[in-house]
What does this fold into?
Amino acid sequence: MLRIRPFRRLWLVLGLASFGDWIGLLATGIFAAAQFQSSAGQGAAFGGTIAVRLLPALLLGPIAGVFADRFDRRYTMVITDLLRFVFYGSIPLVPLLGGSPGVTVAWAAIATFIGETITLIWIPAKEAAVPNLIPKSRIEVSNQLTLVTTYGITPILAALVLSALTAGLQQSGVTLPDWAAPVQLALYLNAISRLVTALTVFFGIKEIGGKSAERQREAQEQSMVRQFLDGWKYIGGTPLVRGLVLGIFGAFAAGGIVIGAAKTFATSLGAGEAAFYLLFGTIFMGLAVGIGLGPMIIRELSRRRWFGMSIVLASGSVMFLGVAFHLSMALVGALLVGAGAGMAFLAGTTLLYGEVDDAVRGRVFAVVQIGVRMVLLLAITLAGFLVGLGSSRRVDLGAFSVDVSFTRVLLLVAGAAGVIVGISSFRQMDDKRGVPVLADLWGSIRGRPLAPDEQFVRSGVFVVFEGGEGAGKSTQVRRLAEALEASGHDVVVTREPGATEVGARIRGLVLDKGDAPSPRAEALLYAADRAHHVATVVRPALARGAVVISDRYVDSSLAYQGAGRTLPVSEISWLSSWATGGLKPDLVVLLDVDPTVGLGRVDSRGEGTDRLESESRAFHERVRYAFLDLAAADPRRYLVLDAARPPEELGAAVDDRLATLLAGDGVTHPAPASTAVPPGPDLHAPDLQTPEQPTADSTPAAGSIPAADSIPPAGSVPPAGSTPAAGSVPAAGSTPAAGSIPAAGSTPAAGSVPAAGSVPAADSASSAGSASSANSASSVDSATGAGTRRHAAPHPAERHEEPPLEEMAELLGVNDDETPDGPTRAGHR
Ligand SMILES: Nc1ncnc2c1ncn2[C@@H]1O[C@H](COP(=O)(O)OP(=O)(O)OP(=O)(O)O)[C@@H](O)[C@H]1O
Ligand SMILES: Cc1cn([C@H]2C[C@H](O)[C@@H](COP(=O)(O)O)O2)c(=O)[nH]c1=O
It folds into this structure.
């Protein structure tokens, strides 16, 4: 950020100005107090000068922004800084010129008031200039830097400098003349800092200067009053800006209420005077944590969502404080209030920087900056006043006794109001409607935010055929298309990969046996084919109302690249969801085939095999079980058929299901966004929820596939006593996880399935789903009258026999060099 020269200079200017502000604030108060002997006079002088600093915001705040929008921002900053140099510089000179204590304090107050009034013009000019100096993508970092500098570094530096000056002089025993006392020096420093910033802006940041055509036009055509009114109209009439401004105020009101109520709240905790300072400090610590670490934690989360969530966090934490009965709870609550308010401020200002036009930016930022101060002051004052009104009652909770005071009621009510504001601002601004909030938050924290659904009007029906090699997909696709066309439907038959010109080239790249792409490259190539296919073929056809029948879709990637290549299925799922914009089929017909049978059919076509067909049997077994797991996780949207049945029977079952679907009974177009949940870290059932599968009301996947990232390398042996991951070989003597393949001598859990990567637990609900993957579809069919029949031969997931050891090793890829990124080997079948 600081490599951008104009921003670096502006940041230095801001740092210096902020340092001047803080040292000026402290020094003016001390200076005024020092003019009096009595402690009452000292207190009044100190408090009075500080209050005077805050007062101008109330008076001039509303029109200050007009200056920033109407005039050249560079000149505005330079002139206002020069004026501040003069006024602040005059404060320590008054006593030197013989002014009495009363005159000195009065002038300190007047000069401070004028200086602060001028600051109100300087701030919006500076704020409005920032977005023109840096790329939009860096605005958040610049805000972080600015806030940390203003509220973190410079106040501490100012306090250190002031105390070092005082202590240094005291220790050295040097007696300086009155005009060079530490406080006077601090006041000179404050004044000089303005001169330096004026010169820096004038000579060093010329980029701030000039006016956009629109600003020029407005300045010429509109009076200041008109511009002022227009500014308010813009804020009130632009929902996003209005929501942001109100939200920021709400978050600060939450903080202010806690600060205002902290004293009586600390008493109600029975924690003593120190607890007040602790709570106060903790809120500011939370603020720093929110601003400093917030973006790092939420990463790619939509800033609009983050803003609403932060307000809810801040307000919810105020409510939590209302029920906290121990200081430790209160400190956690205070930290979260601060963090929420800090994040809301950062997200809000970042959004405002990005969303507000240059022409009105000065006015909007004036309202925000000044409004925040006012809201904070008001909230602190009001809360302080209100908590004094009610009485409290002590309630015994066994180990603890709590004061149910008016303070707590206030915190609860204020917190609840804040939560409502947060939720409504979230709703108003949400740019990912339909995407589940918590899943999106979790996905973003993990670096994979959910993609919002690509909006399009979809009136057609999307049917996908999936299954292993030679399952009979093409045969069934052709047959179904003919049947539908015969009954007058607009049918589009398509496939993946290779349905488009681009796709045909990709198909050559992934399937030709020449130079094999690495597993990740392979996944990306399939995703690229899919993205183009969906955008140019599937969506347009669905939009016009056609029945789209695709030979393979997302599940193939999850099965082949995820389970087959053992790439992290969650990542493949995310990638596919991104590629398709979340488009999911209405029906997936899974033709389940034993790889030996399917590959036998492929061989008998006599056309040779492609690169994927040539993979090992273990690979194809993993693919098969992955398909079954996906279907078991969402039986309502899958029709799983035993592909060993005659084609006509399969066709009849498909026809029946289609008839239901086309009659509208079964068509509820799946909501893509809600299902594009990036799976959790372990690939259990929900991890296999693909963009095809709704999370709500879906049955847990039977025999889910272990996360590729959690799968030990094929053939690895987990330590004895541990529970091996599905698909790994347990050490002899250890108890294998249900569904894992037991080593010789170990006791297999009931229901172990000889499939690498597939883990149906014998006694879990998921195992029921798994064991009946094919049959569960049968029962679904019978329920809908589709009437698919059960097969005499048990489905593989029902077989409990142990495969011979060599076969197991082959299934697991022991002796098989299939590593996620390693070269693939043409396997044997
Ligand atoms: N139900 C079935 N029973 C027996 N043979 C079938 C059946 N369905 C299709 N076949 C035959 O099996 C072979 C493969 O069928 P098809 O091409 O339809 O499968 P596919 O799943 O599309 O294959 P690929 O995975 O290679 O695309 C063909 O020769 C086809 O005639
Ligand atoms: C869509 C898709 C496909 N594959 C594999 C599956 C097959 O081996 C080939 C496609 O051949 P087909 O004869 O057209 O069925 O590609 C894959 O690995 N990943 C995918 O996403």
The CA atoms of residues 228 and 395 lie 53 Å apart. The domain at 1-210 is CATH 1.20.1250.20 (Growth Hormone; Chain: A;). The two ends are 57 Å apart (CA to CA).
